[in-house]
Amino acid sequence: MKERYPFITFEGVDGSGKGTQINLLADWLLRQNKYLHFFITHEPTTTTKEGQEIARLLRQAVHIDPQQIAELFVADRHQHTALFRPLLPWAMVLSDRYDISTFAYQGCALGFEKIYQMHRFNKPNGALLPDFTVILDVSLATWERTKKRRAPREYWETEERLRKAINCQNEALAWWQENHPERRFALVPGEGQPEEVHRQVVAAVMPVLKEFQLLPDA
Fold first, then answer.
1. Residue 164's CATH number
2. pLDDT tens for each residue of 49-75
3. Structural domain of residue 82, as residue ranges?
């Protein structure tokens, strides 16, 4: 067993099934190893003043300045990281959203290198580079069907804004591969039934689970 447990993040547009897949993965892991501990969390948080301001802007704003919202998200993320970082020696951390969301939604406006520097990855008071990131890939048509069952919509939940975010996310992933190839992530199709998607998620994270010796036969 390593000195700490892994930090795994899930990304994707709202309605892509991130929360469902986190819970399915946690349930599956407990069936493999009943002694595992988890801390399941999400962003933005609801406990920081920055997280609360983000929630207000997403509900009410008709225009959001990319620099302002990026600074809010990153400040919230630094405090979020300070909360869960001490837990990693004894618990696996699974987060619904983390840094890739900021790269996707503000990266093309501000530049990926700027977003990267804002995070201060792996610095004492900065963000923590995830051990693995699962990105659930769904079409805008699937998102639209999901949103019909949910209201009210938030600022980015329009077809035009989401299309830009998805395109920017793809550019961000290419930037990571070119500039920081040590970053590990998988783009998992999220269109199928939850159990079908879950099997693909398990296959994607399996190398990390084996690396951290979390499975009985690892």
1. 3.40.50.300
2. 999 999 999 998 789 999 999 999 999
3. 7-211
What is the residue whose two structure tokens read 């930090």? Answer: 7
User: How many residues in total does the chain contain?
Assistant: 218
Strand pairing of 185-189 and 132-137?
parallel
The count of domains in the chain is: 1
Query: Would 157 be classed as within a structural domain?
Result: yes
Residue-wise pLDDT tens digits, 154-195: 888 888 888 899 999 999 999 999 999 999 999 999 888 999
Global pTM reads: 0.93
* Measured distance CA(57)–CA(55) in Å, rounded: 6
Nearest CA among 100, 191, 198 for reference residue 146: 191
The per-residue pLDDT for 142 is 67
Q: What is the 3-state secondary structure (H, E, C) of 113-150?
A: HHHHHHHCCCCCCCCCCCCEEEEEECCHHHHHHHHCCC
Contact 162, 110 (CB under 8 A): no
Are the beta carbons of 78 and 127 closer than 8 angstroms? yes
Place of tokens 């630094």: 78
